[in-house]
UniProtKB/TrEMBL annotation:
Stored InterPro entries: Brix, IMP4/RPF1
Basic and acidic residues composition bias: residue spans: 60-75, 84-95
Protein name listed in UniProt: Ribosome production factor 1
Database matches in PROSITE patterns: BRIX
Pfam families in alphabetical order: Brix (PF04427)
Region (Disordered), start-end ranges: 1-46, 60-117
Length: 357
């Protein structure tokens, strides 16, 4: 072998070594600090993308083995969550980098935001509220009386209904539970008027569970009838009924916009004493969303020397759906209805974006 050949071979080997070193330098590495020393860790793997998730799902759909298919789907869901978090982080960093020049945050459309206008919707003007301020609940808001409630049920109630009535008695101050036995609602209305009660709550059953709620304001009405669903007692949410104190709670009614909705909100307020006892830190909430009224009962707690507060749900919880509003006290035969949806549902619920409360 000549000297020129050996030099040529040496030069070729040297070029390949340089190329390998250049390739190694291109791989990104992360610097970590361990016990005060700066150490380079392994290259960072790129965050998964939506295409990776779709590819893994397509692979899972073609997998004949049921066990492997289930594992691939679980991996694909985790990959989807990682891709979503990575995309959110990227957008957040871009917005921070742009500062004031960042595009406005997009707000998704919901059924509530796309709600159809209602002719009975109240905007808060004084002339719209004049007759509302002089309705059947005006004496309560003038503090002319204090509420006194009777809670009853249908004849021979089931155990869950009895427990639900008992928990309502703990939540609503100055309320009492009575068993109807063979007494009619009309007869109970007459007796409660004579004894000075202001409201009657009747829990009806459906398939041995609480199914509807009748709310009658005394002495002149009105009477509200609701469908009752999703009843969860205190024990179902892993709470102890002994946490419910006898203090008068604060009452919050939210998102009641129409005339019927405002009337219902005033009715719920009239069940509780107008002056709450803040030392008990109890809060009762009636929240209207898409004509479903959600009831929640909380106690707020202060943390870190009063700098932070947290809510603790006490129970019970349930959901109401309005079926009718009747003038006066309960009368199933000759009663006059202000609002009713029974047998008119297809006519009144013509759109998913149309709400009545």
């Amino acid at each position: 072998m000549s000297d020129s050949d050996s030099e040529l071979e040496y030069e070729e080997v040297g070029d390949e070594g340089e190329e390998e070193e250049e390739e190694e330098e291109e791989k990104p590495k992360v610097a970590t600090i361990i016990k005060g020393k700066r150490v380079l860790s392994a290259p960072v793997s790129a965050a998964p993308t939506k295409e990776d998730y779709l590819g893994l799902m397509a692979k899972a759909n073609k997998e004949p083995n049921r066990f492997k298919k289930r594992m691939d789907i679980a991996r694909a869901k985790k990959m989807k969550q990682k891709a979503k978090k990575a995309e959110q982080k990227r957008k957040r960093e871009e917005a921070e980098a742009l500062g004031e020049d960042a595009p406005p945050k997009q707000v998704p459309n919901t059924l509530e935001s796309l709600r159809e206008p209602d002719p009975t919707e109240i905007s808060g003007e004084m002339y719209e509220m004049v007759d509302i301020f002089h309705d059947e609940f005006a004496p309560y808001f003038d503090q002319s009386y204090f509420p006194k409630i009777v809670i009853t049920s249908s004849q021979n109630p089931n155990l869950k209904t009895r427990l639900f009535m008992k928990e309502l008695e703990r939540v609503i101050p100055n309320s009492e539970v009575f068993l109807r036995r063979n007494s009619t609602i009309k007869k109970m209305v007459k007796q409660c008027k004579e004894k000075g009660y202001t409201d009657i709550i009747v829990i009806n059953e459906h398939q041995k569970e609480p199914g509807s709620l009748l709310l009658c304001h005394l002495p002149e009405g009105p009477t509200f009838f609701f469908k009752l669903s999703n009843v969860k007692l205190t024990k179902h949410i892993k709470r102890d009924w002994k946490e419910i104190t006898s203090h008068r709670p604060e009452v919050i009614t939210t998102n009641f916009k129409t005339r019927a909705g405002v009337m219902i909100g005033r009715m719920f307020c009239s069940l509780f004493h107008q002056v709450p006892q803040f030392t008990g830190r109890r809060v009762v909430t009636f929240h209207n969303q898409r004509d479903y009224i959600f009831f929640r009962h909380h106690r707020y707690e202060f943390k870190k020397n009063g700098e932070k507060a947290a809510l603790r749900e006490l129970g019970p919880r349930f959901t109401l759906k309005l079926k009718s509003i009747q003038k006066g006290t309960f009368d199933s035969k000759t009663g006059e209805y202000e609002w009713i949806i029974t047998n008119k549902r297809h006519k009144m619920e013509s759109s998913r974006r149309r709400f009545h409360l």
